């Protein structure tokens, strides 16, 4: 028996199940890294491992959020739309934890170091800017704000595109050697953004 | 296990050692991959015996020497050195080795030799990182020192760590250790030593000349273009009290080496 996702969503229990799956599933990366940290399995520099891990998951959630529209259009996965807000909020969630981990585990909340990093390091300025821009998108992601902002809501949330580019730049900028991973994420983003341009031009 | 090495108190620091486990599992050795745990995972098959070193250039006794012959009659010493990575973390490591100067003298450098160039093994079959097409380093890895730096008593060739032979991931069977320079100068798994008249090319300088100079002396006053060098995190660091310490000029070895660079603009010769 093939059970389509659309059919599952017709039933409230089905909707609840899929929602829970998305919600809990998205907490798995956090759970995994926490467990590794508690068991002291992260090696000599756990701070760096945690920071990198949270950062890459923030990027992945951002990319997945941006993938909803193409997946919907190309594969008829219309049901995905209802989870887009949750995915975007998880991008903000992991980005915030990433930032918190940098401040706590790498810089130890030392004011002089925080100030120095935020004012002198181009890749940190770029990454921090992306987070600052993402914050209002998270806050205004509710239906209430959507109603209140009306047309301006769409304009505001268009920011997701420059944010994605800033995130990519932030990621590429801190590499010392070996660009394969950055290349893969760049190609995926190029497709996700290119597909929208294609839709617009049609 | 290595022959009981004499401990050098003159050149060793009394700081707390970075545990063996971390010294041997947290490595930058891009020949085996870009991740810090890759070298330990992928270097175990490295054949370090037999091993030979080619000695060439401005010397009276060039040739290909077996490692055993190079080590015959050499007094191994333990040297506990700080290691400061250019990525702003650091360790304290008990190396086992001998002064590079004592080895170089045996090859009888000619009067025209002004630099020493080193080359790491190039063997993509054994070194998966050398097979990657997305790296930015041209293999083999090369490094170099000015003659006075090479002859300095702090500069050693290491064959061991923590009283035992070097694990492959730490640059077995023979590596350079120059404690007052960023870690990437301390080239691993050396197969060639060349005495040169001209300043030799160095791998990181070729990859990103604006970020990595030939000298690469640890210097808190000159930032890496993308991050600060004024502090470092001494590993292992614990999560809620990151071990942040101030970076010392020449990694704390100023007294011994600062004179080598007197009159040089260290902002220019970074």
TrEMBL record, chain A:
Cofactor, how bound (note): Binds 1 heme b (iron(II)-protoporphyrin IX) group per subunit.
Essential cofactor(s): heme b; FMN
Keywords: Cell membrane, Electron transport, Flavoprotein, FMN, Heme, Iron, Membrane, Metal-binding, Transmembrane, Transmembrane helix, Transport
Transmembrane segments: 16-35, 47-68, 89-109, 121-139, 159-176, 182-199
Topology term for the membrane: Multi-pass membrane protein
Principal location listed in the UniProt entry: membrane
Domain Ferric oxidoreductase: 54-167
Keyword Transmembrane helix among UniProt keywords: yes
Cellular location(s): Cell membrane; Membrane
Domain of life the protein comes from: Bacteria
Function per UniProt: Part of the MsrPQ system that repairs oxidized periplasmic proteins containing methionine sulfoxide residues (Met-O), using respiratory chain electrons. Thus protects these proteins from oxidative-stress damage caused by reactive species of oxygen and chlorine generated by the host defense mechanisms. MsrPQ is essential for the maintenance of envelope integrity under bleach stress, rescuing a wide series of structurally unrelated periplasmic proteins from methionine oxidation.
Family: Belongs to the MsrQ family.
Subunit note: Heterodimer of a catalytic subunit (MsrP) and a heme-binding subunit (MsrQ).
Protein name: Protein-methionine-sulfoxide reductase heme-binding subunit MsrQ
GN (gene name): msrQ
TrEMBL record, chain B:
Record-annotated Oxidoreductase molybdopterin-binding domain positions: 47-204
Binding site for Mo-molybdopterin: 27, 30-31, 85, 120, 170, 175, 186-188
Alphabetized UniProt keyword annotations: Metal-binding, Molybdenum, Oxidoreductase, Signal
Top-level taxon of origin: Bacteria
Cofactors named for this entry: Mo-molybdopterin
PTM: Predicted to be exported by the Tat system. The position of the signal peptide cleavage has not been experimentally proven.
Catalysed transformations (reactions): L-methionyl-[protein] + a quinone + H2O = L-methionyl-(S)-S-oxide-[protein] + a quinol; L-methionyl-[protein] + a quinone + H2O = L-methionyl-(R)-S-oxide-[protein] + a quinol
Root EC class: oxidoreductase
Cofactor note: Binds 1 Mo-molybdopterin (Mo-MPT) cofactor per subunit.
Known EC number: 1.8.5.-
Signal peptide per UniProt: none
Function: Part of the MsrPQ system that repairs oxidized periplasmic proteins containing methionine sulfoxide residues (Met-O), using respiratory chain electrons. Thus protects these proteins from oxidative-stress damage caused by reactive species of oxygen and chlorine generated by the host defense mechanisms. MsrPQ is essential for the maintenance of envelope integrity under bleach stress, rescuing a wide series of structurally unrelated periplasmic proteins from methionine oxidation.
Family label: Belongs to the MsrP family.
Subunit and interaction comment: Heterodimer of a catalytic subunit (MsrP) and a heme-binding subunit (MsrQ).
Protein name per the record: Protein-methionine-sulfoxide reductase catalytic subunit MsrP
Species in which this protein is naturally found: Marinobacterium sediminicola
